[in-house]
Design brief:
- The structure is a single chain.
- 42% of the residues lie in helices and 19% in strands.
- It is α/β, with parallel strands linked by helices.
- Helix 4 runs parallel beside helix 5 and helix 8 (201-217) crosses helix 9.
- The model has no long low-confidence stretch (mean pLDDT 87).
């Protein structure tokens, strides 16, 4: 089974990216513990049988915990995060990552994970590494937001050192693979780099129709940007070829 796990879904930017038929995910698990963000997530996921919206987050324990500045891009589990308001928080539910993986992910599954989760990413990764559940993952894209937490600035390197010791190499760093003009194109660049996209003719045709539909409806800013640049780049080439053909 081909599975995508979105840890820290926010307003659904990543979910929009992975619904593209070129990925054909059998199951998409969406973790978002902040209640008010689920209104937008529900609209995106409506009538999508392969999408599972979960109103809790992953961590290294089963607990309830404050998220500071909930619903913002700076939201964090840590009051010491440089961008949060300590007086603005929501009490949210979290489950142990290893236990969840053990119950829901099989050894034969093809699993892609996005981790951008309020500074909890380091704790989650170390928990999965300790239990060896992490080796079920084909590729995990990590945004080390924990670097913005006072006293935890070196945690990123600590996690990478543990990966090296354990021989775990199936990861991508946000700064290396998240390139493009929008969240959608950045996520898709990572997934394409990781080999998640299907390249057979049938999938490419299906994806092309989907792409054109989204451009026309202007529902995907990343696709609209790509379309404009496609026209800008190829129109001069087409005109030059046409002029050359007429001269001959």
């Amino acid at each position: 089974m081909k599975i995508f796990i979105d840890v820290g879904a926010h307003e659904g930017e990543t979910l929009l990216s992975v619904l593209d038929p070129k990925y054909s995910f059998d199951k998409i698990f969406v973790f978002e513990p902040v209640e008010k963000l689920h209104a937008k997530l529900n609209k995106i996921a409506a009538q999508r049988k392969n999408v599972n919206l979960l109103k809790y987050g992953l961590w290294n324990k089963n607990t309830t915990q404050k998220i500071y500045s909930p619903g913002t891009v700076a939201g964090s589990l840590f009051a010491a995060h440089q961008d949060v308001d300590k007086n603005d928080f929501e009490l949210c539910e979290f489950v142990n990552a290893s236990e969840w993986f053990d119950k829901n992910i099989g050894n034969q599954d093809e699993v892609y994970v996005k981790l951008n989760c309020e500074g909890a990413e380091a704790d989650i990764l170390l928990d999965l590494l300790k239990s060896k559940e992490i080796f079920k993952i084909k590729d995990v894209m990590i945004d080390f937001d924990v670097r913005k937490v006072k006293g935890l600035e070196n945690t990123r390197q600590d996690v990478l050192d543990e990966f090296k010791k354990a021989g775990f190499t199936s990861y991508s760093l946000c700064e290396d693979v998240m390139t493009g003009p929008s969240s959608i194109t950045r996520i898709q660049n990572w997934l394409d780099t990781a080999g998640a996209n299907k390249t057979d003719i049938k999938s490419q045709i299906k994806q092309s129709f989907y792409w054109i539909k989204m451009v026309i409806l202007n529902k995907r800013p990343g696709y609209y940007w790509e379309f404009k640049h496609f026209i800008k780049f190829y129109t001069p080439l087409f005109l030059l070829k046409l002029i050359g053909a007429r001269r001959n």
